[in-house]
Amino acid sequence: MSSPEERRSVVTGIGVIAPNGVSTETFWKATVEGISVLDRVTREGCEHLPLKVAGEVRGFDPADLIEERYLVQTDRFTHFAMAAANLALDDARLGRADYNDSPFAVGVVTAAGSGGGEFGQRELQRLWGQGSRHVGPYQSIAWFYAASTGQISIRGGFKGPCGVVASDEAGGLDALAHAARTIRRGTDAVVVGAAEAPLAPYSVVCQLGYDDLSKLDDPARAYRPFTSGACGFVPAEGGAMLIVEEEAAAESRGASVRAVLAGHAATFTGASLWEESRAGLAHAIRRALEDARCAPEEIDVVFADALGVPAADRAEALALADALGRHASQVPVTAPKTGTGRAYCGAPVLDTAAAVLAMEYGVVPPTPNVVDVCHDLDVVTGRARPAELRTALVLSRGLMGSNAAMVLRKGSGSPS
């Protein structure tokens, strides 16, 4: 077995279920074309609520990818995660034949911020409307943050280290870091990522307490970070799952190394204290660069957190300047999530998937709906920008105060 220092974590598979595509291919096509799919909320029971615009996953039938016995005991957020895991496993060509003899070599890690709100709401309505005998037995597990990790593990027969990061948005990057640490300790592969389903009525009502939530009803103006018209963020469903493997193990089975998880760091600066997040995010960036042994000028693209709150946007721009120096105003910055919404823990994993694809295809995707940038950042707007990309920086902050940064290196292989 390789020493911990030699066990590099690499991405070999990507699976995406997002508002702009229910496959990695459709997600990337819409992302690189800068298509915005933000629209009026149509989920039943949400019509009268103040949240008017969101990123909904449409055209998704979980029965196409998941067996009925799993569907009846899981919430929509787990349907997304299981479907994305299927796609990622297929993409990595990691099948049961690869781990039948060593099921303890494959683990599962997911992040979740909202849990199974739709399932939980339905069963609670039955409890109060019809009585306890009408509450299904799966209420005890379907709402739980760890449900996606458990169901993916059970369905796939993965018996290696499993975990869940119950956190705010930055938890998506923290889950990837957790997977990398698991691999350094000896696991060969981890199915890792995050997917959220925060658009059930109960979940939306919970979010209405966030001052940073955009209440505008115009999809083109509701989520415009780094602009003078920034007025908050728009939530979204969906997310992504990745297959992260130990590099030597991946190469030994002929897998394509698409990217390297080179460095990560996280800090905490307090709920909605956006001015303080400047120092916390800058520290996370510096530590992630150190972890990756990467100089600031090596960063070729930044996938920004892009909250859409003026104070938060200003803090992020200043954090980049603090951590990257003069390079901060020269490196291309993008936030594809302005076209899909922020899927909470799923958002930075979607950004990570987009960063891997951007490095593979040599193009920086644009930031939809953003034109009049009012910060000293080279935000890519309008159309995609061709560029040689070897190293990407992905940033994420949470409403509860978490900050995270991850450095990705371009892999040696490419998808066939």
TrEMBL record:
Pfam families: ketoacyl-synt, Ketoacyl-synt_C. It is an enzyme of class 2 (transferase). It comes from Streptomyces platensis. This is Actinorhodin polyketide putative beta-ketoacyl synthase 2. The keyword Acyltransferase applies. Its EC number is 2.3.1.-. Keywords: Acyltransferase, Transferase. Belongs to the thiolase-like superfamily. Beta-ketoacyl-ACP synthases family. The keyword Cell inner membrane does not apply.
